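Please check this:
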Amino acid sequence: MEAARDTLLRVADEAYADAENSGSSLTVRSKVRIQLAASFPAEVCAEASRLINDAVGTSSIRTEQPFERHFRDLHVLLQHSDKSGQRYASAGRLMLGLENDWVWLGF
């Protein structure tokens, strides 16, 4: 999880510096890097919760246990429009010079 956080912070810093140096909005390259860097921590956290879920066994299905809620919340996050698997495809489209299909990469 530390690598995911560090990646996100580094990419955000680089994008900010690029925009500040150019005096304009973010470049397509910066937008793609931010999108990928934002999706990665969500996946890492969901995977960590899955490993904990596997380790705690049936305790993970009891609503009175915090594991159940954390597992559910983190996996719901992966379904959010800006962190879903489709965003990898959107970033890839732009990297390949294809038409943008995701509104937040078009601003």
Q: What stands out?
A: The chain has four helices and no strands.
